[in-house]
Amino acid sequence: MDEPLLKETLPKQRVVEVENVRIGIVHDPGPRAGREARLAARFEDCEAVVYGHTHVPHVERFQHLLVLNPGSPTERRSAPVHSMLVLRVKAGRITPELVTL
Fold first, then answer.
1. DSSP helix/strand/coil, 51
2. Are 71 and 90 in contact (CB under 8 A)?
3. CA–CA separation, 100 and 84 (whole Å)
4. CA 59/CA 52 separation, integer angstroms
């Protein structure tokens, strides 16, 4: 939905570190089939990955990785509810909380 010029300047993916916990971020995770395995391979050194694009909330552990989609607080599209995600990081552990609005 962003302007093409803005899209060109933003990274396709990013990894942030919060209290020694690595979190991958990507907008479009690709097709549904095999999504978790692709993300686990793509972010093998992360504890979690947050993706968007689908607007469908998703909280799941796959192998070493928490696979997370916050959904959307504004555009529900095909999701059952409006939602957002709160991530808490403490003592090297990440805890996701899906909040429905």
1. strand
2. no
3. 7
4. 12
Per the prediction, the chain carries an average pLDDT of 93
Number of domains in the chain: 1
Q: Are 46 and 23 in contact (CB under 8 A)?
A: yes
Q: Which CATH number belongs to the domain containing residue 24 in this structure?
A: 3.60.21.10
Rg of the Cα atoms in the chain: 14
Q: How many CB atoms lie within 10 A of CB 58?
A: 18
pTM recorded for the entire structure: 0.89
CB 32 within 8 A of CB 60: no
99 strand-pairing partners: 84
Q: Which domain holds residue 28?
A: 4-100
Residue 101's pLDDT band (cuts 50, 70, 90)? very high
